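Explain this fold:

***
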Amino acid sequence: MGTKNSVAADDGAAAVPTARTAAAPGPGGLAVRPGEEPWTPEEVAAARTELTSDVARLNAELAASEAALAGLMRDSGGGSSGDDADTGSKNITREHELALAANAREMLEQTERALQRLDAGTYGLCENCGKPIGKARMQAFPRATLCVECKQKQERRG
């Protein structure tokens, strides 16, 4: 699996040897950028622990948001108050809870994908160009899927 990404990233580039050696996993099994130290087993374990902890935290946040939403939906069903300000306030609260739940769900999906990439040995490889994202970037933002260059291109387009 890992060789497919490094081969696809190399076609036609002037710095083919550099790209190949940069994408080659180090002793930690994960790719690093030129000049970076290889991932140590301890660093890989720390990344896995952080991601696993995030999954548990996000599941708890999602459960709390869904419980709050269920309560808000139950409370809004009566319609007995007739107070427009109260109804508006409840609608704003419900919209806020919906946004929180959607954000937690998206972060949970990203975190689970990061764990899958870690298991597959593709953690730290850009999903767009196949080059290493960079160990420092992965440690700062463990759910990163794009290298800085591809992320900047994406942001300019969107």
